[in-house]
């Protein structure tokens, strides 16, 4: 079995936990492929008793699954690595919230045993794709969580003229706008007042960032929609982001967002479910009186 591993930098205190993951995988005869970034971290704490090959995202080997060790940001990096291959991803949470990387430290050994026995289901998550006339982000022009266009500095707000399937929707006077997938609805969009959306809803949500007009509210549209933008402002430079990746653009760029033609397969173990995650991670519905 060929398994990839990607992770973030870690402290020496976390090394025994990560070493245990490698011990389990090696014990089962797994052929390991580690991202170049994470391989460098492992060598700094002398993981020399394990053997692995280093992979590059642009030349990914035929993996059966990819393990992400870190938080949600690390899992989003892992999604960028696998691209259109739809390789299943298991998120082991060593960060804080862990809304996408749902496997806790305490659950890790049992989770790995289930995964190695192929005792799991796949949770297919839709992505969005950004098309521009400037080729922004190259082959990584997709996002699992969200796309944003926001002002670059602390100057005046920007105006984002927004169109749905060619029909004018609104001109947002704001610090920016977020287009979120259902998966990303619990992220930046939620912090800006956007709704929670169940992962299989087939929607995008447009959420303004600090809008000047208080009557402007988030709107949910079908993920079959084509959403296009034209941006104006006193500043001629703006920031465009896809998950954790960003680029600076000017007001001549043409931006169009639509649903990607591939999915992300998140490994889901028995007992793990989106609604359970809502209750645990967001304390959703928690009433201290009871």
Describe the SSE topology.
Blueprint: E1 2-7, H1 15-27, E2 31-35, H2 36-44, E3 53-55, E4 65-70, H3 72-82, E5 89-93, H4 108-116, E6 121-132, E7 142-143, E8 146-151, E9 158-164, E10 167-174, E11 176-180, H5 188-191, E12 203-209, E13 219-222, E14 227-233, E15 237-242, E16 245-250, E17 255-268, H6 274-281
Parallel strand pairs: 1-2, 1-4, 2-3, 4-5
Antiparallel strand pairs: 6-7, 6-17, 8-11, 8-15, 9-10, 9-14, 11-12, 12-13, 14-17, 15-16
Helix pairs in contact: 1-4
Question: Any overview of this molecule?
Answer:
The protein is an alpha+beta fold. It has 2 domains: 2-120 and 269-281, Rossmann fold (3-Layer(aba) Sandwich), CATH 3.40.50; 128-261, Tumour Suppressor Smad4. Helices cover 19% and strands 38% of the residues. The protein has helices spanning 15-27, 36-44, 72-82, 108-116, 188-191, 274-281, and strands spanning 2-7, 31-35, 53-55, 65-70, 89-93, 121-132, 142-143, 146-151, 158-164, 167-174, 176-180, 203-209, 219-222, 227-233, 237-242, 245-250, 255-268. A hairpin with a 2-residue loop joins strand 9 (158-164) and strand 10. Helix 1 (15-27) packs parallel to helix 4. The longest helix is centred in the N-terminal third of the chain and has 13 residues, at 15-27. The termini are far apart.
Characteristics:
6 helices, 290 residues, single chain, Tumour Suppressor Smad4, Rossmann fold, six-stranded antiparallel beta sheet, alpha+beta
**Going by CATH, what is the homologous superfamily of the largest domain?**
Probable inorganic polyphosphate/atp-NAD kinase, domain 2
Q: What string gives the helices and strands in order?
A: EHEHEEHEHEEEEEEHEEEEEEH
Report the average pLDDT across residues.
92
Provide the CATH architecture of the largest domain: Sandwich
Distance between the termini: 48 Å
Using the coordinates shown, work out and report the CATH topology of the largest domain. Answer: Tumour Suppressor Smad4
Sheet with most strands: strand arrangement = 7-6-17-14-9-10
User: How many domains comprise the coordinates?
Assistant: 2
């Amino acid at each position: 079995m060929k398994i990839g591993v990607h992770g973030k930098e870690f402290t020496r205190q976390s090394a025994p936990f990560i070493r245990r993951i490698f011990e389990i995988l090696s014990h089962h005869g797994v052929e390991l492929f580690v991202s170049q970034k994470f391989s460098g971290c492992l060598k700094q704490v002398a993981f020399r008793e394990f053997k692995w090959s280093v992979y590059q995202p642009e030349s990914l080997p035929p993996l059966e699954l990819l393990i992400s060790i870190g938080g949600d940001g690390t899992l989003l990096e892992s999604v960028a690595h696998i691209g259109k291959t739809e390789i299943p991803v298991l998120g082991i949470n060593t960060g804080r919230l862990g809304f996408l990387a749902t496997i806790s430290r305490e659950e890790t050994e049992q989770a790995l045993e289930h995964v190695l026995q192929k005792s799991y289901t796949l949770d297919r998550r839709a992505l969005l794709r950004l098309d521009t006339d400037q080729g922004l982000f190259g082959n990584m022009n997709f996002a699992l969580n969200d796309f944003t266009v926001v002002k670059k500095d602390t100057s005046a707000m920007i105006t984002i003229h927004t169109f749905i399937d060619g029909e004018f929707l609104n001109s947002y006077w704001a610090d920016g706008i977020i287009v979120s997938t259902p998966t990303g609805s619990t992220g930046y969009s939620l912090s800006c007042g956007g709704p929670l959306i169940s992962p299989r809803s087939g929607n995008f949500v447009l959420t303004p960032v600090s809008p000047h007009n208080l009557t402007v509210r988030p709107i949910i549209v079908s993920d079959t929609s084509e959403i296009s933008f034209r941006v104006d402002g006193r500043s001629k430079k703006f920031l465009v982001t896809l998950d954790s990746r960003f680029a600076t653009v000017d007001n001549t760029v043409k931006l169009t967002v639509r649903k990607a033609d591939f999915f992300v397969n998140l490994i889901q173990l028995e007992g793990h479910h989106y609604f359970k995650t809502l209750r645990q991670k967001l304390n959703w519905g928690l009433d201290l009186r009871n």
